[in-house]
Amino acid sequence: MVWKKLGPGNFSNCPNGSRQWIWDVFGECAQDGWDEASVGLGLISIFCFAASTFPQYIKACKTGNMDQALSLWFLLGWIGGDSCNLIGSFLADQLPLQTYTAVYYVLADLLMLSLYFHYKSKRRPSASSAPINSVLFFILGMACITPLLSRTGSVAAPREVFQGRTLLSVEPASKPFTRQEIIGFVIGSVSSLLYLLSRLPQIRTNFLRKSTQGISYSLFALVMLGNTLYGLSVLLKNPEVGQSEGSYVLHHLPWLVGSLGVLLLDTIISIQFLVYRKAATSSERQPLLPS
């Protein structure tokens, strides 16, 4: 995509006076205000993702009922989506901010899943803990070795003259998918589907419990904010030279669907927080004995 590293010592290849600090930190060109805004929003989104899990960790330690409040299928779907997103972001040559977010969130998911089984084993010790730990270590191993895949076949292409961003472009230019990108695109599509499906078990769990007790709303609020900024950071980034807007969006479509499409389901969960919080408040105000 646009944010490909040009290799060491190639800062002179960045047209239109790219920001030096962006090149020093990320090794990429920020060619105008759109690119700079994309970097800024992407960094804020990473902060939101990084901070979102801590309130749930604290909530889990206080209540001790994380295994009852959160659906296991929600956590498995979430970590499955993040794992596919991580692999796909490398194979499809996505923006580095997308890759950094994917790496961190897989690790955060593993910690969340570990806490879930920790509290579940305290309530009901199970013989299946060993296979589950094996799966967790396997996913962690995949998260560590996947970055090596991005090094194969990555050749820096010379930059042409930058022409700026043209919204609603009708240029016929279209960047073809490579074999590696096709595989990454498919994996990214699977990750988006897992993201969407992961919310459904949690919505069902909240509905059956008629409660969101044990769940930190900050988890979903920060994820919603992070996904919004994450999608905007992708959309604001300039397409490659000679690439149309439509081709750029198509190459990033699975990740856009995964980040922006899940906002609808997170909104439903937010409504559940409001509804069940009001129901809990009204039940607390009822008299203990009938008059």
TrEMBL record:
Transmembrane segments: 37-58, 70-90, 102-119, 131-149, 177-197, 217-236, 256-276
Location (main, coarse): membrane
Topology in membrane: Multi-pass membrane protein
Record keywords: Membrane, Transmembrane, Transmembrane helix
Compartmental location: Membrane
KW Chaperone (keyword) present: no
Similarity section: Belongs to the laat-1 family.
PANTHER family noted in UniProt: LYSOSOMAL AMINO ACID TRANSPORTER 1 HOMOLOG, SEVEN TRANSMEMBRANE PROTEIN 1-RELATED
The name this protein goes by in its record: Lysosomal amino acid transporter 1 homolog isoform X1
Upper taxonomic lineage: Eukaryota, Metazoa, Chordata, Craniata, Vertebrata
Gene that encodes it: SLC66A1
